[in-house]
Q: What sequence folds into this?
């Protein structure tokens, strides 16, 4: 189906069955740096899914560089548990690799028993909010030997290959960067001196593991940090890596502290493939591309067109570890989509919590959430075709139950249609596409435009009833909400009505801010027009940039709290705030709206009342559960399971996970 993607590749004598790799991805399934059953089952699933390479990591080489929460190869006692893991990965058909990690200035002293992190120079880190201790020459030599010791343990544990992380702003990139490396000795200053540390690390590891053992490096294609290395300099590093003994170069985006999005929906699919091609042009070893490579068709084209030799699928395989096998079999429409939301992966890891996935209820729960065919099929009725109801219906059918799905609207998807309306959020509609595919594949009858009542349920007499009624807009206690100029954010995002020029949005949470961006984007240049104008030099770059972000609307957001976007995840909140500034959206925090009349918004800020005139006012104050059917069923004494927003307003992952778990509770697993 995808001949280039599923052709074998040889890396320093090691044959890999296809061009798909699962990269190192922080998981936090333990807080003591040790492997456990949760890790074992997680990686078993990744290997079973069909990836050619499964990379374990990040794995710290010592405590100073990783703290106690990153997996560690710092001592010989780690060899046995890692040997068990490599056996699991290999027994399930994949090649087992490991990523050796040292955070440098990105480490946190709170995890180092109060000791300072170490780095090339004493330069304050915006990531860790600390100033590290500068490494001495003796420290550097000891650290290089620590890399070697960890590499030898990895080889003894049975790993087929080793990757050294030299990306994301961690230790090696700190040595390479003129912004972070202010040394005046042989490890700082000139290009040759700044690259000396990673070159010696690679050469020392190569000498220790032998000439035929595969070594890789994960490098930043562009730091995307002002004053640091760009894609004009990084090919020089790649050439040094190859000359030092590297067999595979894994190219990703920039640093964690970069103010260029690295992972969210704002980054176009395969948006950093140009960085991989930039490196591939300069080296002869295989090159791997990373970041937002979501579809097999895209991966196939990148390899076929010569942009890379392999693809990294990190969060993509978190969403569906069987992506490779489904693609190989021509079942790509059955792949659960990664929608680049960052909510279960990046946001949680940055909050020091275990990783999960909003669309895959089993990710991180592989052992306890196993779905098996039931020996006692039951008639299951699912009411509501939002994400919770859809997952319940699909999971019940996969478990062998006889399922029917009912929806009062004329389309499945529920609030996903609204959630995917703002700029760069359309990826969420992929979830609807996936469920449509699965409903058809599993032959689940879908009854649209059907209002389910207690009488209908009593007539159909299902063995089990799952109710996912969803939610409705929450209207705050503000005088004048019946004013003709007032409209809800749900109506704006769902129906896209014609509105005036001067617009107010009441509510500075996620929904309010995304609604503001949706409206602010009206009348701005499309990507196609930007390309056209740039290609023909029809307008100056400055004018084009202005037209990209200044459209036909003027937006003001009112928020009672001191800050906007409090309910947006850490890894994407800054992206939304930056977009608001680019689009010229005014945010009035600490502002309580008192009334709305004829387009006049009266609000209080710092104890003073103010008035503003608007053409329309959009209410974005959250949602409330819809319990019409649930309350009627309770009154009649009819048993059911409620999932999603009808229980309480929550997130997409709550609905999907609850839908899955509701089926497990039936006895279908």
A:
């Amino acid at each position: 189906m995808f001949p280039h993607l599923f052709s074998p590749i040889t890396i320093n004598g090691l044959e890999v069955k296809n061009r798909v790799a699962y990269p190192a991805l922080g998981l936090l399934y333990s807080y003591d740096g040790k492997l456990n059953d949760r890790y074992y089952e997680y990686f078993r699933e990744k290997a079973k899914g069909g990836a050619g390479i499964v990379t374990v990591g990040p794995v710290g080489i010592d405590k100073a560089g990783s703290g106690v929460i990153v997996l560690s190869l710092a001592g010989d006692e780690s060899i046995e548990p890692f040997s068990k893991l490599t056996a699991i990965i290999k027994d399930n058909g994949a090649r087992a690799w490991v990523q050796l990690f040292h955070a440098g200035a990105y480490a946190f002293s709170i995890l180092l028993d109060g000791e300072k992190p170490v780095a090339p120079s004493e330069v304050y880190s915006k990531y860790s909010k600390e100033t590290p201790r500068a490494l001495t020459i003796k420290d550097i030599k000891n650290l290089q030997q620590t890399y070697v010791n960890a590499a030898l343990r990895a080889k003894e544990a049975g790993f087929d290959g080793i990757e050294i992380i030299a990306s994301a702003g961690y230790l090696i990139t700190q040595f390479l960067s003129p912004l972070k490396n202010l040394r005046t000795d042989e490890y700082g200053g000139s290009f040759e001196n700044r690259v000396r540390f990673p070159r010696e690390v690679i050469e020392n590891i190569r000498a220790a593991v032998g000439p035929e053992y595969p070594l890789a490096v994960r490098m930043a294609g562009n730091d995307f940090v002002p004053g640091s290395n760009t894609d004009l300099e990084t090919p020089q590093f790649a050439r040094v890596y190859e000359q030092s003994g590297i067999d595979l170069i894994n190219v990703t985006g920039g640093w964690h502290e970069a103010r260029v999005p690295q992972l969210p929906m704002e980054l176009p699919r395969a948006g950093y493939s140009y960085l991989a091609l930039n490196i591939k042009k300069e080296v002869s070893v295989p090159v791997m591309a990373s970041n937002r490579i979501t579809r097999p068709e895209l991966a196939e084209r990148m390899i076929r067109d010569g942009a890379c030799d392999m693809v990294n699928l990190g969060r993509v395989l978190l969403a569906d570890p069987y992506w490779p096998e489904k693609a190989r079999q021509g079942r790509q429409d059955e792949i659960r989509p990664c929608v680049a939301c960052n909510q279960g992966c990046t946001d949680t890891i940055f909050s020091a919590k275990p990783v999960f996935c909003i669309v895959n209820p089993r990710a991180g729960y592989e052992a306890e959430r196993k779905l098996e065919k039931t020996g006692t099929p039951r008639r299951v009725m699912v009411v509501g075709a939002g994400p919770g109801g859809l997952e319940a219906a699909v999971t019940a059918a996969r478990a062998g139950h006889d399922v029917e799905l009912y929806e009062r609207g004329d389309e499945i998807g529920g609030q996903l249609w609204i959630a995917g309306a703002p700029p760069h959020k359309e990826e969420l509609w992929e979830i609807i596409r996936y469920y449509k595919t699965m409903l058809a594949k599993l032959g689940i009858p879908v009854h649209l435009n059907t209002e389910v009542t207690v009488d209908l349920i009593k007539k159909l007499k299902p063995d089990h009833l799952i109710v996912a009624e969803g939610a409705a807009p929450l209207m705050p206690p503000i005088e004048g909400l019946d004013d003709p100029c007032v409209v809800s954010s749900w109506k704006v995002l769902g129906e896209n009505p014609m509105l005036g020029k001067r617009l107010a949005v009441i509510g500075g949470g996620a929904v309010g801010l995304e609604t503001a961006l949706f409206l602010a984007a009206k009348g701005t240049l499309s990507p196609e027009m930007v390309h056209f104008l740039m290609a023909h030099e029809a307008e100056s770059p400055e004018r084009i940039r202005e037209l990209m972000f200044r459209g036909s609307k003027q937006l003001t957001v009112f928020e009672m709290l001191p800050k906007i976007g409090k309910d947006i995840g850490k890894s994407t909140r800054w992206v939304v705030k930056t977009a608001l500034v680019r689009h010229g959206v005014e945010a009035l925090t600490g502002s309580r709206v008192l009334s709305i009349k004829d387009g006049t918004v009266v609000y209080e800020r710092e104890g003073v009342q103010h008035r503003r005139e608007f053409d329309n006012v959009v209410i974005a104050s959250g949602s409330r559960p819809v319990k019409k059917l649930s309350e009627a069923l309770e009154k009649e004494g009819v048993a059911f399971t409620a999932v999603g927003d009808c229980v309480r307003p929550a997130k997409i992952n709550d609905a999907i996970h609850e839908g899955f778990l509701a089926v497990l509770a039936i006895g279908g697993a």
Q: What stands out?
A: The first strand starts at residue 9 and ends at 11. The chain has a mean pLDDT of 95. The chain has 24 helices and 28 strands. The chain has three domains: 9-350, 379-473+624-664, 486-621.
